[in-house]
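Protocol step 4 of 6: structure prediction from sequence.
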Amino acid sequence: MSRDYKKYTLGYQRENQSRKDEFNKQRIYELEERKENFDFIRKATGYSLTISQRTIPVAGFVREADVTKLWDVYQKIHNDTSRPIKISFNTFMIRLIAECLKSAPILNAHLKYRPFSATGTLTYKGKIEVSMPVILPDGRMLPLLLHDVGGKSLDEIAAAVKELERKLNNTIFDMALYEVSKHRMLGLALRGHILQAIATGITSFIGPHKVNLPPLKDRREYKKYEKYDDVLHGNDVGEGTICLSDLGSIYSGKGFATTSPILQPTTSVMAFGRVRDEDKVYKDENGNLQLKTIKVLPFTLLFDHKIGGFPDIVPFLNRFDELIESPEIMLEW
């Protein structure tokens, strides 16, 4: 068997687009008039973002935190050669945020709200399921799920991230999104949006907005040779209980870490930028002005104002402050 389906997997695309991407980074594009229909990812995320933007009143907190002490601890962990997998800053922050969420479980909840009757139900989740946006080789972005982050050590989170990466490279992602789309259409139908579910199904497979899946022969090969545990599925993609974006991995400039709207039914979304050096003026014990260099982390927290107000997020912020001021405990994580 030729296994031609391999050319549709993300691993193959990454290997064969690396040089092209490097070239495109240095290229200035000529302006041209053209149209581009939404692909599967944009259709799925576009619907969720639009509904969320219409129905969720967002409140937020933005800060640039002094993480000088935290950075020193991270460097010790990152350079620890005894660990099975080198700990990235993204993994480090996922574990830190999970610890802070334990102090404010309302931010790790799902909200079911009924505008007509002004009633709502908060479901506090027993596990922290982190939705982590990942950029694909073609520039598209999608959320992958890290399960039960609150119950994992740093090494276990690093292993889970590596396992997601392995599955991602073996996956024909439009087929995984097809699986997600079927679940969402079923969800629309069950909530009474029958016509919308039908319209979504029709446009996904007919006309200019249809999904561009590989040829049937290659799809059959893919299902035949790729084991279930070797590829991503619908339960590996989605909103989870909290979305955490590492914007510092794609942009090194200054600025606050902004993020996307909160996605139903979650109650919060967070983002952090790249740690950078910043000069700070302070007074010493003699009252003289001194200059020192500190490490600064841009951080943003947005939450659904329907769940409450700023007092509800203070426990999270207090725990965050405790960890960046006394981060030595993270050496035991």
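Step 5 (inspection) to follow. Strands lie at 58-66, 109-114, 119-124, 130-135, 141-146, 242-246, 268-272, 276-283, 289-304.
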